[in-house]
Amino acid sequence: MAHLVTLIAGDGIGPEVALAAERVIAATGVQIEWERVELSGDRIRATGESLPADVVASIEKTKVGLKGPVTTPVGGGFQSVNVALRKKLDLYANVRPVKSLPGLHTRFDDVALDMVIFRENTEDLYSGLEHEVVPDVITSIKVITRTASTRIARAAFRFGSRHLRKRVTAIHKANIMKLADGLFLRCCREIAADYPHLIYNELIVDNASMQLVTRPEQFDILLMPNLYGDILSDLAAGLVGGLGVAAGANLGDHHAVFESVHGSAPDIAGQGKANPTALLRSSVMMLEHLKEMEAAKRLQQAIEYVYREGDSLTPDVGGTATTDQFTAALVRFLKS
Ligand code: NAI
Ligand code: MG
After folding, report:
1. Which of 68, 104, 251, 325 is most buried by a 10 A CB count?
2. pLDDT of 10
3. What is the pTM of this model?
4. Residue of 8, 74, 262, 326 best suited for mutating to test ligand 1, as the one with most atoms within 8 Å of CB
């Protein structure tokens, strides 16, 4: 039976990478019936609806979405639909594997990295609670709750336990935000106590940033509130080849939306240069979620094969191929 999955192509490079994902997933032989819904900056501007009802309704029905990026205006304009969607569907865990690809040269060629970021996805400074107290004085409210901190911590430790990981590192700034990040840490410690076989440690976010650049191989699972998770995800993506290869999943108790770490990349949109690897690695996670283990494995093998061959890669990872040529190479491998 075919799986029913919501497909949100998004905007910018979104439609280009979503088309690549559709073609490559089809080539794995897995049966997926896509329910397409439109979510884009243009649609939101045109309708004034920050989160169109049909998008939410579709994912509520299918339970699973594959999503391209959606542009959010910087400073003013409408609220981020990405944040709105995560909150509306209570997709509280943003899970982002950071894994080296064989054959892809980076500044860290000598170490194979394999870490997973667990980023809290519903609160912190992303609550959108900003006020102009008096002209030229703004407050932006950071919200940290026991409920949200505990469930992201539990998600990280449960994953660590199931996947035989060794260590969970909580990242914080509790030396300054003693109450907010202090609560986050207390929740992490409480959950850590239930998993004595996993090593638990804590690092202050500025130090963690430095260590990620100088000794990234020490990290395994990284657990953090929303803002640090957003920033360190892009930093970590840079360690393994950039945003073009960094996958992710937004998971809740009832729904899952798979999307890459990168945004809509307006600087290269429409030029056939976008690297779909990030969305394809997110698709591997989606296939595993759908229990299509064989298709997930084949897709992962196809990506690794094309990177090892190295002659069909997009410009962001040092190649000269177009999105189409890269996609065609994957499809050829999968059909062979
Ligand atoms: P971005 O991630 O779109 O781009 C940053 C840089 O990485 C650009 O130079 C871009 O060309 C490059 N890049 C990103 N993905 C790539 C890919 N697949 N292949 C090759 N190169 C790639 O970040 P930026 O420019 O800060 O944000 C652009 C827009 O995207 C903003 O409106 C932002 O709000 C939105 N955004 C949306 C997200 C989502 O839908 N989940 C996540 C992050 C940003
Ligand atoms: Mg981000």
Report:
1. 68
2. 97
3. 0.96
4. 262
